[in-house]
Structure formats: structure tokens, C-alpha cells
């Protein structure tokens, strides 16, 4: 029976990630490719591989924390609440950026996401160090994604939110 919880927690982050990709996938070749991006922007082929690994790691880490806290009791409110909030902002970013073409809101979203992800890691470190360590690649990727979002925002000043180029 515990295997079902392990799989459920591990798969959960992928659900929103897949949905965000599915809803905005046509915007990548039609809109995103036309934006000015820095030379260090990763290839489009890297993103699905990276997110698959990152979502799997964070999902399994959430399972470890949930298990160590004995489920969703009062002790889990802050650590799993932070996780849920950062996951919601993570899932919101693609529709804001790719779907709405709103670079302003996407940048605000990812900056708040960074703070919540760091808060999640700090909260989890006291509960399960392995879970916290599993979030480190995610935080590294978020740092790059935040810099990329900020750079795209800065380098595309004529872009109007919600209006396609």
C-alpha cells in the first residue's frame, strides 16, 4: 500500500507540469522562438528531460517528508504547505509566460516561486535531509530559469502582455 503513496507523491508534480506544457505547447514555436534570448539559453530539447528529473526528485522528496511527519497532520502544515504553494507557482509560470505572453507576471511568479522553494528546502532540512538535498537540483534550475526569465523580460521591452508578436 505504501508504494501507491510513493508513486502518487512522485507523479503529482508531473501532472501540473504536463498540463502546462500541453496547454501552451503551440506557443513555443509560434511566439517564444521569436523572442530575443541570451546565448546561454538552453536548447528546447533540454527542458522536458530536466523537468522530468526535477519533478520526480521533488515529488519523491515530498513523499519522504510526508512519511516522516506521519501524514498530513498539524506538523505537516508548514512544510507541505510551502511545497504546495511553490508547486502551484511552478505550474502557473508556463500559462503566464507562454500562454498569456505576460513577461511581467511570469517574472513576479518565478521570483515568488524562488522564495517559496528556498523556504521549502529550509523547512524540509530539519525533517529529512535527503528530501532537502533532492531539492537542490531544482533550486539550481530555478536560478537559471529566473535569470532567463529576467533576461527575456529585459531584452524584450516592447512586448505587451497578452499580445502576440
UniProtKB/TrEMBL annotation:
Name it.
TSPO protein
Q: Which GO terms describe its cellular component?
A: mitochondrial outer membrane
Which Pfam families does the entry link to? Answer: TspO_MBR (PF03073)
**Keywords, ordered alphabetically:** Membrane, Transmembrane, Transmembrane helix
- Which PANTHER family does the UniProt record give? PERIPHERAL-TYPE BENZODIAZEPINE RECEPTOR, TRANSLOCATOR PROTEIN 2
As for family, the record states:
Belongs to the TspO/BZRP family.
* TM helices/strands, residue ranges: 6-24, 45-64, 105-127, 133-153
Fetch the InterPro entries from UniProt.
Answer: TspO/MBR-related_sf (IPR038330), TspO_MBR (IPR004307)
Domain of life, per UniProt, equals Eukaryota
Membrane topology value: Multi-pass membrane protein
Organism equals: Thryothorus ludovicianus (Carolina wren)
Coarse class of the primary localization is: membrane
Compartments where found? Membrane
Amino acid at each position: 500500500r505504501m508504494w501507491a503513496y510513493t508513486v502518487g507523491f512522485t507523479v503529482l508534480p508531473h501532472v501540473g507540469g504536463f498540463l502546462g506544457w500541453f496547454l501552451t505547447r503551440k506557443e513555443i514555436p509560434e511566439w517564444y522562438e521569436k523572442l530575443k534570448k541570451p546565448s546561454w539559453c538552453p536548447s528546447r530539447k533540454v527542458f522536458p528531460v530536466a523537468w522530468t528529473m526535477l519533478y520526480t526528485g521533488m515529488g519523491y522528496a515530498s513523499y519522504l517528508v510526508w512519511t516522516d511527519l506521519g501524514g498530513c497532520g498539524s506538523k505537516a502544515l508548514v512544510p507541505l504547505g510551502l511545497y504546495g504553494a511553490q508547486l502551484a507557482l511552478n505550474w502557473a509560470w508556463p500559462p503566464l509566460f507562454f500562454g498569456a505572453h505576460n513577461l511581467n507576471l511570469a517574472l513576479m511568479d518565478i521570483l515568488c516561486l524562488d522564495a517559496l522553494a528556498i523556504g521549502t528546502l529550509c523547512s524540509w532540512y530539519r525533517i529529512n535531509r535527503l528530501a532537502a538535498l533532492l531539492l537542490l537540483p531544482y533550486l539550481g534550475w530555478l536560478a537559471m530559469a529566473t535569470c532567463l526569465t529576467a533576461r527575456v523580460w529585459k531584452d524584450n521591452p516592447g512586448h505587451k502582455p497578452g499580445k502576440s508578436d
